[in-house]
């Protein structure tokens, strides 16, 4: 078996990624893309932000370059840097530069995690200048009309330190994501994992129970992604209670009492 | 090999000491004789507890000793321990008489009734799990509390201390969980929406009517649970077949009638006449009991309060909404029409609020209030949806306001509005629960020239501190010779190229990387405000705080300053000088100047409270710095001596366990031998000259933060 190696800057998503629209986010995104306005996706983890981006990349037939931001991510990690190769220095583009050159969609996931200085790099790209300054080369790359910048951000972290600055957020069109409605979430879980409607419905009810616990011991309730995981396990023959334990309870908390309580909730439903 | 049992003489010696027989004249000889018959580990178990209880009260220990040997073969040790701790708790809360009563209750301990106690689910063990469990179920948030039996008043669910109807622990836990679910269902599915007293009054035998209504409701709720929580229902069926007799035929008919998905309380009430005439009335071991008085009392208070709260919240919501409108004039002409539609979607209650037919998203608080109101009425009564007018309600009465700490105190021992903290009882080797009654107060600011005088007096030190702290602040540096980095390290590259030319291996460490250490520190200062600091220590403390604040402002670290003092456990006081959110302004400066010596040095509660506050602050490093003048001490209390030292030690250990770095600064001329033990978990420093204080603190800071 050979794993495929892809160059994200030139790879187009071939198969339609499954995505259920909650509201008019697809229309909004398309309009923003046509009007060359960058997009900010807000919402809790696992509610479909990344999947939405894949879907949009497929829909717009643009390559998608995703950068997961971490607290050590610097501007050069995005733009590019000199490397030494056999006594010569060679410039290597970073993912953002590659996306700009290829006219793709650059998606900076959990952008608040990145260092503050990286924000400054994306500012000129995110307003009407639409240029990427490459300080070390003394050049500027002008973004083609197809290029699109999207960032995501989870306001639930409620930390002063991890807040997006106004100067940054006011450059973007913001799309809000939340857990889908029960009906929709049931359909998503059933389609994605292959369990029956009835099982999916119980999984969704279970997720709502964990979401009730948010703020009283849980940082975040079970996301749709976790439900899909649990559903896949169930579809593969794991008992629902074990699947909920492994895929949901253990994923959302380490606290013993809370684990047990979540366990009891799932065993009450199934 | 098992150890030899202790002889009577050996035990008598210890018992004489523990029970203070010189004054109490307890006949320890009889007790010792009784204990000789036991195996060594049983002796150790009982003697250990006699010693531990004796540190609380000698009479209790004596009573325990007299009863325990006879109970040991019948009672699980876990339960004996729970009984001993419970007795001590009762003593702490309500005194000797009640504690002795609890001690005596064990005499009526009936082995048959308690044959499964060994496998019983203790309230303490199950409450945290079931508390979260019930929170996860939808509806009003219910608290779980310990009480005499299982019942609910619509705001809390009360469970007995021990649930032990079945021979194994898991099943007993399941039984407790099912009980909780049934009690929850009473609130969720409207069993409590009725005036029980009025209904019962219509019957010749009110008690009989209520029992039957409760049974009918249990049937209805069981059917609801079967629908909503099928897994739980399966467990319920399994346990009921083990514990309860089959339903009488007449009741089976009622069961069928109430099994419909949408059956309501009215359906049960319709059947009540028929059920009243039935001779038998089924009872289930998981049903709990009905307390109409408690339900009515809780409801009466809740209704008015929530009506007021909801109307105020809606008014706020409208105001926000109006503010967001681009054209405020148009909005003001006609009063907006609010409409709320409850949705019971997939077992989850939700509400759609529309304002003049345009949907608005209800904030979380409003949603919870709506849920609670809906559970009381089964709908949202229209008068609840009239937004409160200006000044219609006194917000102080409607919303929970922190009580004025002094008003609560006034001559009484009320614990209202205070926070309760446990204290470690060294003798008992157990916490005294809810022992310290803690209140936060604010230091009365003294607007005088203290701040200016201090800066003038210590001008040299301030300058020195500024330098030191500025050095701390500037921590960005270039790390050279890294394998990865933003820039090329030219020195390293030239060397590497030379090496390569030379035929040697070329290093791959050719980059420089900017190392940016963002300071992310929260520090809390806890200052001793006990009477013993009077005079030069107090003044030095205040001066040190001013200098510290000056320095900390440079760093930009978040910090809080609190003072502590108190008299006895009933009056533990923490004085706010600066909270984490406050800025270092004139008010704070005046408060520092206003720090005055108060009473005694009870430290445990202060450390526990500060740990709690610190843990609420988001920071990578949390530091708790205590400034005191020595040994913990309190007025006529055991706190003086070993007890206080051990409690302080325990509080520091607890803080360290949650990831806080405790640091203690003691101003003490004699370096006492107990300090290393007391500060076990913390790093500490003993100063014999308080003038060193500000400078020393910078050292501590450097050590902790670099």
Automatic annotation (TrEMBL), chain A:
Keywords for the protein's UniProt record, in alphabetical order: ATP-binding, Nucleotide-binding
ATPase dynein-related AAA domain residues: 38-172
Similarity field: Belongs to the CbbQ/NirQ/NorQ/GpvN family.
Domain CbbQ/NirQ/NorQ C-terminal: 185-267
Source organism of the structure: Thiobacillus denitrificans
Name of protein: ATPase AAA
InterPro entries: ATPase_dyneun-rel_AAA, CbbQ/NirQ/NorQ/GpvN, CbbQ_C, P-loop_NTPase
Gene Ontology molecular function terms on file: ATP binding; ATP hydrolysis activity
Top-level division of the source organism's lineage: Bacteria
Automatic annotation (TrEMBL), chain B:
Xref: InterPro entries: NorD/CobT (IPR051928), VWF_A (IPR002035), vWFA_dom_sf (IPR036465)
CDD domains registered for this protein in UniProt: vWA_norD_type
Name of the protein this chain belongs to: Nitric oxide reductase activation protein
VWFA domain mapped to chain residues: 522-704
Coiled-coil segments on the chain, per record: none
SUPFAM superfamilies (UniProt xref): vWA-like
